[in-house]
């Protein structure tokens, strides 16, 4: 990799696989000056009046190895622009991106292309398959860019297609596949390169609801085995809650809250996040571990037969159900309705780590904790306003003057963004 340095070996351990540090992306005139103005408190409206559009403002986060990190927000929030800075498709106006401890923003074009072809793959929302190539050839395209010989790339493409549920379709053509199957080819193409980081930009948004659910299931099932590091972009809150180990909520170019799905549901950072999450089925997202009380709270309670519970063993024996911490609370209602004794929550070793009393279960279904009043993000447009509206390829915000996201080349560049 020349003077810039090397990537760490796979045996070396870092706290995070991916780290974004104070990223800004400003399109238009005098972008560096615009960043300084934003840091000084200028609003997006003030910048826009001077011919500059702030698509991403001071975004920072980390993604651990094997984690699915979901960035969610409405159209125009800046999420797709943010994603494209993570692999260098868009150059940040300010800030940096660290991948396994190495600053990607310091790489030259040749080095960056090498990283994208071997270590970072991208899955786009609209399949971006080559119509004149077979399913197998589409899945192998990233390997072809890497210079892998024909026999090996055919075998690796076959394995990736099997993982994606497309065994037996290798010789078919893209127009012979359903939308969901075409998206699986795009996923297989990313998997075939064995990249350490997958960037998925609204990858399931073009699919029908049932097929979209199937693709979410497929991704979660694959993740159990492959344990890839994934940054997933979506505007669908339920999808974010279902897939994300951690979630960042964006509005008007800024990340307004980060945390687990439970954090965001139970303790929203501001009124915007609270209103965003108000229609979510909390029983399918919150888990027993998120709402459980200390085991001691069950001591002194009595069973339906009148016996007093005095120890962890007695609580376990009397509990109407024994569940693990990751059990959705939707599964707790039936046992709680049958007994006044709390449901027991255990660790992998079967030891009591918490209890869910009936009253606690019912209380958590009420209003989320009232957020402290926080300043609203600047910009009068609000979520989904005309500023930075989605482009034809589903990305947020306008393309920069460098023409990175050339619309005429969407299919070709989308087919292997890492090339």
From TrEMBL:
Residues 401-419 have a biased composition (Low complexity). It comes from the Bacteria. GO terms for molecular function: ATP binding; ATP hydrolysis activity. Keywords: ATP-binding, CBS domain, Nucleotide-binding, Transport. One of its GO terms (cellular component) is membrane. Residues 18-277 form the ABC transporter domain. The keyword Nucleotide-binding applies. Residues 367-419 are annotated as: Disordered. SMART domains: AAA. InterPro entries: AAA+_ATPase (IPR003593), ABC_osmolyte_uptake_ATP-bind (IPR051921), ABC_transporter-like_ATP-bd (IPR003439), ABC_transporter-like_CS (IPR017871), Gly-betaine_transp_ATP-bd (IPR005892), P-loop_NTPase (IPR027417). One of its GO terms (biological process) is glycine betaine transport. Coiled coil: none annotated. It holds the Pfam family ABC_tran. Belongs to the ABC transporter superfamily. This is Betaine/proline/choline family ABC transporter ATP-binding protein. It comes from Streptomyces qinzhouensis.
